Every structure is written in C-alpha cells, then in structure tokens.
User: What shape does this take?
Amino acid sequence: MPHQIAIGPNLRKSAYFEATLRAGGKSFSVYNHMLIPSHFGDPEAEYDRLLNGVVMWDVAAQRQVELAGPDTGRLAQYLTPRDLSKACIGQGRYVPLCDHDGWLINDPVLLKLSEDRYWLSVADSDIHLWAAAIGRERGWNVQIREPDASPLAIQGPRAGDVAESLFGSWVRDLTYFGFAETRLDDIPLVLARSGWSKQGGYELYLTDSSKGDALWDRVAQAGEPFGIGPGAPNDSERLESGLISYGADMRWQTHKATPFEMGLGAMVNLGAGHDFVGRAALQRLADALPARVRIGVFLDGQPPLPGHSVDMLKDGATIGHVSEFAYSPRLRRMIGVGLVQASLAQDGLAVHIALGQDKVGAQLTPLPFSMP
Amino acid sequence: MPHQIAIGPNLRKSAYFEATLRAGGKSFSVYNHMLIPSHFGDPEAEYDRLLNGVVMWDVAAQRQVELAGPDTGRLAQYLTPRDLSKACIGQGRYVPLCDHDGWLINDPVLLKLSEDRYWLSVADSDIHLWAAAIGRERGWNVQIREPDASPLAIQGPRAGDVAESLFGSWVRDLTYFGFAETRLDDIPLVLARSGWSKQGGYELYLTDSSKGDALWDRVAQAGEPFGIGPGAPNDSERLESGLISYGADMRWQTHKATPFEMGLGAMVNLGAGHDFVGRAALQRLADALPARVRIGVFLDGQPPLPGHSVDMLKDGATIGHVSEFAYSPRLRRMIGVGLVQASLAQDGLAVHIALGQDKVGAQLTPLPFSMP
Assistant: This one.
C-alpha cells in the first residue's frame, strides 16, 4: 500500500515544486532536506523518454555548496583526493570526498566558476557543515554558503535538440561536464552538459529560484516537438549504467565504503606535495588490494523488492550486499548493484540474495551491464 | 491531494518501521535520512493521547552521534557554547551547536554515558561529519560514529505509569533529562526522562535494532491499560509549548538564526578559559541586543496552511516570518511561531501573514502560548 509523504516546513520545496505538481508529480523522496519527485505515475513512459527521446527532471535537491574567497582553490584541493591542479573554469569534475579515515562522505561534481568561486554539486549529505568546519579550523579565508541554484535536468538522445532550441547551437560544443553562465531572456542560469544518466543531456542550474515555474514551462515548450515529458532520476537506467548513488550504494552512517571499493581508485592522487583529508588512511588502503569491489547481479524471477540493502550469500555465508534492485526493461530481468568480496567477483558466479525469509538465486556480472 | 513517499534504499528505515506499518502508519516524513512516521490517520486521537493519556512515537530518526576516546570531553566542550564543566554521567543536557560564524546548525541533547563516551541526540543535520572534521583537524583522540541506538518515545501524563510497569518504580526518580542504561529482559536500551513535548514522558533508546519489533510490542502491551496508541511528534503541541524545531524554525541553508535570536542566549557561556566553535562571532553578537526574537502568532480564521515558512508583514513591510502553523485544539484557533524584529515584539500587535496571494490578519503573542 502506498504511504503518504508529510509535506511540512522541515522539508524544503524545490524551485520547481509547484511546476512538478502541475505536471502530475505522484510520488516524492527527500534529498538534501528537499522534496524531489520520484515519479509521475507512468514509470514505463518515463524510462522510454530517457532512452529514446528526452525527459525533464526536477533535481534541484542536488544542492550546491559554494566556496568563495581567496583560499577557495586551496580548500577545494584539500577536500578531495582528486588532483585539481588542472581544473579549468567552465569544466566540471567529479570529485569524491572522503572523511579523515578515507570513507566516502559524498561524490559531487565540482564546478569552477572563477578562480575564487567554486560549487560542489552535492549528493545527499551536509557537506556545507564539513567543508566550513575544515576551512575555518585551518584558518583559511574562504566563505561557505548555499547559493540560490536549482538544477533542472534534460536527459536523453533528444536533449541536445531541446538545449539547442533554447540556447543556440553553441551548446553542442560543450564537452562532457563543460558549463557556461548564460540566460534565457530574464532567467539567469548555469548550463552544464551533465546529468545523472548515461543517455546524455544537460543540467540547467537556475540561479533565481523565483523563476522556477517560468523555466520549467520554457523547457516544456521547447521540448514539445521532441516529445519531452516529466520524469525523475531513473533507478533502472542508473543500475544498468552502473552509476553510483551516495546514500543508496554507500552511506557513512550505515554502510561505509572507500573510493577503492567503489571503483574510484584512479581519482585518488597520492603524489608528493598533495595533501588532503584522509590522505594517510587512503595511502594505507592503496598499498593493498580492496577487500570488496562493485558488482552487478542478475536476480532470478521477479520477487517483491525490499527497498533497502540486503545480504548476498554464497554457501550460506554473507559475501557482500546488494544496495538496490530494479527491473531492467532493456535486459527484461531484475538487476541490482552491490559490493562483493574481491576474491569472489567472478562473472557468472551463482549466489543467493536474502529477501525477507527467502533466499533468491542470482548471478554476478560486471558493471556496467552489457546492453543488447 | 496527498502525495506518495518513495520508499527506497536512499532513505533509511527505522528499527520500528515494520511495527509502525502494522500499527497503521499512514504518512511519513524524512529526518536524518530516515523515514519517520508523521501520523496514523487520526490526528485528533493522537493529540488527545498526548495531552490526556499516553502516546508512543517512533523517533529513531533522532540519531545519535557518539564521541568516544580520551579527548571526548574536550571535543564535546569545544563543539557547544554551553558550559559542560558540570555535566554528569546519567544527566542529559540541551546543547545548541553553532558554526564558526555563530549560526545554529543543530540543537541536540547531550548524554554523557561515561567519561569517554558521549552521545549527541541530534536534530536533522549531519553533525557526525562536522564533529569528526573538527576533532581530526585539531588532532584530538576521539572517534565519531553512529551507534545502534533508536529512540522510542512515550509521552503524556500516563507515560510514567507505562514506564513504571515496564521498568519498575525507580523510573519515577529520574530527573528531567536523567537517564540510565538498562534492559527489558533481552532488550538492551538507555532509558531517559525526556521527549519532544511538554507533556512529560520517557525515551527508550533501543541499542539493538534487531529488537525493534519486540520493544514496540512490549511498550504497546504495557501501555494498554493506560490507553496507549501510536502517534508522532505533534505539531500542534510543539507550537503551543514553544518548542524549537531545527529544520522548520531555522536551518543553516535557508533561514539562519543565532542562539540569541532563538531565546538560547543563556546557554552561551562567554566566560574566560572557555573556547568553542563560533566564540568570537557569538561574543560580538552578545554585545548587542538580538535584531530578531521568537514570537507566537494567532492567525485569523482557518486558511489553508502553506507547509513552509512565510513572511510576516506590518504596513506592507516584511518584519519577520512564521515558520510553521497548526490548529491548536486547546486554544481553538490557528497558531504559529516565528521570528520578528525585536522592536516590534509586542503582545497583541496586529500584523499580516503572506499566504500565497492573500494577506491574512494575525496578532503577536509571547511564547509559550498561555493555555486555558
């Protein structure tokens, strides 16, 4: 039975909240203390738009943490194991963040807007508190705030057509994660070639939340010839594509993971002269192979889904966990992603998944899933 | 129209989640990345139990941040402006937390379990990240983790009867915020005389989440002679009582406030030799009167409620905001709480509230509300 969500003042409303209600938003989740649509009542159409056309998503809950001031670059570099020495204005970069023990606490995209103003486009944890504490404890001159910035994603193979009709043909020249500050008449925004799918597209970081309705309607109009419709970050597609979801796949409080376990080891720069939070711990971890690795699973049949992380078993012993399952329309079967003991990460290995009282058969497979 | 909540792996389930579904949980919110029931379909009965009987609440989403190790006391004192020099094992203490600029970022209850193990029972922000960053940047020997601790609250005038029948008559001797580690047969927990209402009661911090169902059922059975039933932290009662809700009344990202503005100035200890996060900023703020103060409002009529913070107006100018409204059954009218310019905090002052396109009349009144 579906349960209601309590819409009260403790949960923030997106700049597009009213627009998503008008568009038929049926179900919401919460991300960075903000309501985020999870579907509009027709999951198959929403998946189809993403794969074959274009879909628009209210992802304003992907909040920005702004670093501003003379020590911005210094703090940003200290916050992430990834080397930022070649970071450019106008070019985003995926930057895992770890705590002092090397556990992942978020995995934002960094947007360098100018030499002394950066945004971290964060997953679901309060990075503003962490970043500000570190900057101030180190005595660096950098201010942390949450700017008025509300991403609206357009994703899918026709997203470029929609973006071009809105902004002009220059949008085709943006590299992946490239971005530019621009306007739609009186609507200010940052346009980025990005989004949480592998189907391509753009994110429009609206920088005046009073214009959420106006931007939503402009995008819907421009997208009409291309069959645009509303949707939300899509579990099936993100599992198929092997995208990481901080909060679902790992979370500091409940199921910690390191960048090496999550396949992000290449982003940990242990070169000389590069100091960052968690360096000593990550150095120790880098000296050994990770104990666990990311893996995909094919699940037998179509059992009811748990809605939370479950154990993966081999011969009755726990060998890992699956963090999320979904039906893959392209593969026509249930798939999942998780972490497994590295020594058992074998393509085709038969395992069991603990679903309530039942054990359901499953087979391991590398990520991302191979599509037909 | 009510909207559904998306129950997925990015939102944690409480130790009592299955029990609350069995008990008829209809609506949920999200707090500290965890689902929390908001009502069970009969708000009037839930209020009545709280005021006149006893009600049980799943408040496991009030998570604990554990500080452990030799420098625990030192870090705890540095995290809060409140003087902890007289903090005792077994006696909780309300401890506002501020950032380095003096803005509130949480307002937990501190539980000193031993000399080197404290819990912060936190409101809705990721204090674990902030506390760990500060401890580690200062080089102190203290580990931060989230323990397996899930509060279940019993609140109302008959809560003492329920607690006594479960644990024995010693529970009557606990002072307000007093607590003790104890057991119910094989169920380990920390029993505290506390809870987010002014009706009195206890919180049972279950420390083995696999026993959530068992504890819920034990409490429901013990409470049956006293008419216990399920409920949730109650907006009407908390507004009547003037209780603060971090996230609703103030939030770092959206509507910042200082401890002086929130009526917590007496907890800011600026005595010599006491260093803490935000001290310099709070010293400056303490030298002046706060620009804004907390206030209650009576709202004319029963207009539809906005579900978010709205402006308070006088002669067309914004003079403050109201963070939440609810109907008060005891006062038989709509009430709210907010912040107003200190010079205008006058009992009975007529103001307007901006509700969508409308301006609705309202009158200011001191907090807590006077009950008939």
Remarks:
- The mean pLDDT of chain B is 97.
- Chain B touches chain A through 54 residues (CB under 8 Å).
- Residues 291-372 of chain B form a domain with the Elongation Factor Tu (Ef-tu); domain 3 fold (CATH 2.40.30.110).
